[in-house]
Structures are given as C-alpha cells and as structure tokens.
Amino acid sequence: MTTSQKSISSGDHLDLGDEDTQQLYARFPPEIEYEIFVLAFESRKKRRTDLLCVAKRVEDWLCPHIYNVLVFRGRNEPPLSAIQKYGHHVQQILVIDRPETPISASDIFEHCPNIWNLGFWVGLYLSEGVFQLKDVRRLVLHDLNFFRAEEGGREVDAIQADGSAPDKDSDLPLSTVTSIDKKIWFSNITHILVTSISTESGAVLLQFPNLTHLGLLSSNSLQVLEYILHSHPRLEILVWLLVVIGSDDKMLVLDVTSTQAPRTDDKRVVTIDTNFTEDWTRAAKRETTEDMWKVAERTVEERKKRAQT
Length: 309
Fold this sequence. Notes:
Radius of gyration: 24 Å
Number of strands: 9
Strand order of the largest sheet: 1-2-3-4-5-6-7-9-8
Structural class: alpha/beta
Helix content: 25-40%
Strand content: 5-15%
Mean pLDDT: 76
C-alpha cells in the first residue's frame, strides 16, 4: 500500500484545494466531479453545508444549489454573515416564521438582489428595498396593505419603517423610489398568493397589470372572491386555497359541488386542499413539478376543453 493510500484510508484530512494535491488525487474530469458533488448534495437531507468545506472549487459549485432557496421557519436558518456572503445566489425565499437570527427585510433585499420568488408569509415586514429587486415575478404576502397607489397627485411612501400602511393624513416625505420604478416593478408580477384581503385592499391588485395567477385563502369572504373575479378580467387562474394545518403534502382539487368549494360558474376558480408552505417549499427545491399553480392551470385547461366538446 502506498503512502498516499494509507493517508486516505486512515481518514486524514486531505486538502483538495492545493493544486499539487488536485493533480495527484484527481480521479475524474472536473465536469464529472461536479456531477458527483451535486448528487451528494441532493441526496443529503441534513448538514448539506458541510460539503462546502471539502475544497474551494466545491464551494463554488454547490453554493448556487445550497442557497438557491431559503425558507425561514424560526429555526436552523443561515446567519446574516451567510446571507451577506452567498445572498447573490438566492433566487427564492419564503419567510414562514420570524427568523431566529437578527435578519431584517432590508438585509435580504440588500444582499439577495436576484430573487424572483418572494414570500413574506409572517414574521417580517416589507421595506421599500423590495422595489430594487428587478426580477421578482411571484409574491406571497400576508396582506396587500404594503402597497398604496398615488394619492392627491403626489407620490407617497408605499411602506413605513414598521411595515404598516401610512395614515392618509400623514405628511410623508417623497419616496426615494420613483413612480416609474414602481410601475415597472408592479408590471413584472404575475403570481400572488395573499392570506388576508378585503374589497378595499383588493383594489391594490389593479396596480399589477400583468397579474395572471392569484391565490386566496378560503378564510376570506366569498364577496371578495366575486369582487376580484369581476374587477380583474385578465386574471387566468384564481386558486381558492383551503386553510390547512399540518405537514400533509397531498393535494386535492375539489369540485364546485363540494361544500367547501365556492359556488361559482367562473371556470378560473380552482379550489385546492393542500398545505401551501409545504407545496411552495417542495416546488422551489424541485422535489415536485406539481405545485398548486400547475395543478390549477391543468384543471382550467381541462375545463376549457370539455366546454368545447
């Protein structure tokens, strides 16, 4: 047995970051080695970040995979230092519960500029920095009170520091984000899931001219549902999401004859019984291709085909 074999078999640390060592121990071409480490990452359910310690090149390979999706559940979250270092890899983020680490919405928006799927379910408030995220296409929000239209012919702050909507009579300074910036940002959004909505806050949806997919929790009133269907003819899909507690990842589409489904002839409405946070997480991590949006799209398409026969 050679010295090198003894070293490996004895479990001694091997610094693969050294160029001479790489040449000595390289077994596969870089593209094959890359595939091996990606498979190792995908097969591990815990301590995935341990793989980053293998070598600098492995860190470069895996960071886009490890930090592509972030889910904050109030435990086991990446520290602010990791967000600052790897935030540019983050493309999808969902805040289910207040982070246990001192991370604010402003921190996320500053260090994660490439987000396209943004969810603030509970725990954090939006800040005006959200308008600097140019790639956002999908939103998950507790309510729509973060966004306000222009009032009285002047631009007002859309969001206060604590995330609450400003008082109508307050004398707010001019926003640092221009009206054109906001219009471009609003026009990029195609999917929104909102927990709580009223006919008044539902009017905010008119600021999203390209909104095609809307999800509402069934805890909202049927009057709100009818109002949105009537006032948003461009809407293609409206998911009526039953309130589900637990971690069951099963998905069930309910027929309009169900006692839990709204009685409406509008073929855009699809009632789905599922746990949304689990659905979002599994789809973001590519553990499934059948998220609630895909299921709703297929359901509406099938309805259209049946109507034509």
